[in-house]
Amino acid sequence: MAKILVIDDEEHIREVLKQVLERAGYDVCCAADGKEGLELLAKQGADLVITDVIMPGIDGVATVQKIREKFLNTRIIVISGGGNVAPQEYEPGAIATNAYLASARNAGADRTMTKPFDRRELIDAINELMKEE
Amino acid sequence: MLIVLLIQAVLMPLLFFTLAEAVERNLANAFLDDARLYARFIADSIDDLDFELGQDVVVEHLDSALLGGRIVYAALVHNDSVIASALTEPQEFDRFREDFEFGEHGDETYYVSLPVESGFQTGILHLGFDETPAREHFDTVRKSIVYALATYMLSVLIAIGYLSSAVVRPLKWLQQASRTISSGEVDKELRTKSSLVEIQDLTADLEKMRSKLVGMNAQLQQEIMDREQSETERRSLERYLRHAQRLESLGTLAGGVAHEFNNVLQPLLLYTDLALEDLPADSPAVENLKNVLTLANRAKGLSQQILTFGRQDTEAEFELVNLTPVVHEALTMIRALLPATVDIRADISSDIGDVRCDPAQIKQLLVNLCNNSFRALSASDGYILVSLKEVIVPRKLASEHPKLRDGEYIVLQVADTGVGMDPQTVERVFEPFFTTQDVGQGTGLGLSVVHGIVVRHDGEIILESELGKGTQVRIYLPLADEDGREDKGKRDSDG
After folding, report:
1. In terms of Cα–Cα distance, which of B84, B90, B139, B133 is closest to B108?
2. CB B65 within 8 A of CB B74
3. Cα(first)–Cα(last) distance of chain A, in Å?
4. pLDDT tens, B264-315?
5. Confidence check: pLDDT of B495 > 50
6. Counting beta carbons within 10 angstroms of the beta carbon of residue B297, is it exposed (0 to 12), middle (13 to 18) or buried (19 or more)?
């Protein structure tokens, strides 16, 4: 059974993705931020990681970079809420999440998706990535 | 001129009297000298005659002296007897008067007495010279003087007349002209008909000054106009930038809201989907949950529209496209969407260059604009005109819209003859959620989306509207160059 790690700081997104993926037949574990996710990945390993891009601490882009340092075969999907965010509270100006997604792709993410996506889109994307392996 | 005449009037009599006096004195002196000489000559001729015995001879001499015509009286007084010429006219003479001055006593006669001696006899010769011819001579000379002075006077008058017409009048005219110029009327060219070189030179100099003044005036006016122009440009640029800034900050705000919104929508959609899967098909909750799903999807659509305005949505695939078929397709769609009664006219050029764009977004943009125009049309009259053509953006327009540069653009225009908008409304039409429709009628996102699409295409949108007349929206999309890339290099070199 393929193993998927979901990293997102939003509890409800972690929860609903876990349910959706488990119903699709995957073994799912969750982490609330990049640090926790990387620890989990080091401990348990995963075939595919789904990570949010805007997170406190180690953000999505850094997470992708760290994963790629050790796990070349792990598939990565980076998801984002779209629009724009102030990257840190003390940093002025808004940065489009598109820019983050582009950086994540450069860092080695296999796929980026903008929320909200529906079930079908997500499962199709995962299946496609798994097939390539 | 008047003063010259006045001097003449004083000078003339003075001159006349002085001259007449001098000539008269001269003539009188000559007359006296002459008379005395002649008297001496007669006295000499009767010297040596015997006054008593030769009385007849003396008379003869005296007669012949009288006959000379210059003497009117001649007598010799000897021993108290008077030997006088018989030719002396019968009139009273002051026989023994001795005159010293010409014209003395006023009797036209000049008396001279000379002592004569003959042996032991002595006598006194009395002669009276006629002053009349000398006096006549005086008159003639006086007349000549008068004539000469009159001639002089006349020539002075003529000279004054000539000077006044040849010098004074042109000078007066020049003075008048320079006053006119100093009062600000500088448009009339200065030309003189005067034949005087000095006047011509003066006129030429003045004309040079005038034309320089005209040139400076024109230059100043040009500078003022330029300044006003640049001031207007600066102001419209300022307004443009303020507007752009406001739209940008609104976009940022909307983008931030949409981000949070999407993070909420994501679990909402998926939870509902999962719940629907769990329920038996006949559960009464199914219908409600399906409604929740529909509404969540609508919210997703709204969020995507907001992001289109905020320029933050996923990158679209831009391709080289000829807009003519795209616009035709969009028009077909719009005609199907709007009531058949709406008069939609089209003026679509097919001879246009390609632009880099996302055709789907261009169609979306056209649908939104036509929808707005349709809502602006009152009742049954009026129409919507959609046109597409290639244009060259003039410098002035480019200076007012910094996003535009001089060069070729494709212009997509949607114009209607609807109710139009007031300036306050025009100012805000691109803001998200700004709407003039009743609550629930429109989202207020239509033009925001259009704006976002245009910005993403590196284009410019110009909206003109007048209450009661209608609205025109022109979308400028940069023409792609032959390599298919947008003309970035050209823009950079254009500065």
Report:
1. B133
2. yes
3. 14
4. 999 999 999 999 999 998 999 999 999 999 999 999 988 887 777 765 444 5
5. no
6. middle
Q: Is B25 helix (H, G, I), strand (E, B) or coil?
A: helix
Of B266, B306, B312, the CB nearest to A116: B266
Residue B196: DSSP 8-state: -
DSSP conformation class of B104: G
Which residue carries 């006119």 as its tokens? B180
Domain boundaries, chain B: 2-152, 315-494
CA distance A13 to chain B (A): 5
Neighbours of B491 (CB within 10 A): 14
Residues from chain B that touch A17, judged by Cβ atoms under 8 A, are 270
CB contact under 8 A, B255 and A13: no
| B170 and B41 Cβ atoms separated by less than 8 Å | no
Task: Mutate one of A28, A53, A118, A122 to test the B interface: name it (highest B CB count within 10 A).
Answer: A118
Provide the ipTM. Answer: 0.90
Closest CA to B456 of B403, B413, B406: B403
Q: Does A114 touch chain B (CB under 8 A)?
A: yes
Query: Would you call B271 an interface residue with chain A, using a CB distance cutoff of 8 Å?
Result: yes
| Residue whose C-alpha is closest to residue B414's, from B334, B353, B350, B340 | B334
Q: Say whether residue A95 is in contact with chain B using an 8 A CB cutoff.
A: no
Residue of B259, B268, B277 with shortest CB distance to A81: B259
Q: Looking at CA atoms only, how far is residue B305 from chain A in angstroms?
A: 11
| Helix, strand or coil, per DSSP, at residue A25 | coil
| Separation between Cα atoms, residue A107 and residue B46, nearest integer Å | 168
At B145 the three-state DSSP class reads helix
CATH number for the domain whose boundaries are B2-152: 3.30.450.20
**Token reading at A59:** 């953000």
Q: Tell me the C-alpha distance between B303 and B68, whole Å.
A: 153
CB-neighbour burial class of residue B56 (10 A; exposed 0-12, middle 13-18, buried 19+) = exposed
The whole-angstrom separation of Cα A64 and Cα A96 is 18
Query: A59 in helix, strand or coil?
Result: coil
What's domain A3-132's architecture? 3-Layer(aba) Sandwich (3.40)
Q: Under 8 Å CB-to-CB from B398, ≥6 apart: which residues?
A: B404, B405, B406
- Residue A48: strand, helix, or coil: strand
**Residue at B105: amino acid letter:** H
B211 neighbors B177 (Cβ within 8 angstroms):
no
Strands, sheet with B109-118, edge to edge from the N-terminal-most edge strand: B81-84, B71-78, B121-130, B109-118
* pLDDT value of position A133: 57
Instruction: Give the tens place of pLDDT for each residue, B410-443.
Output: 999 999 998 889 888 888 888 877 777 665 556 6
> Of B55, B396, B454, nearest to B247 (Cα)?
B454
pLDDT per residue over B214-249, tens digit each?
Answer: 888 889 999 999 999 889 888 888 888 887 777 777
pLDDT for residue B128: 84
Residue count of chain A:
133
Topology given in CATH for the domain delimited by B315-494 = Heat Shock Protein 90 (3.30.565)
Displacement of CA A92 from its chain's centroid (Å): 25
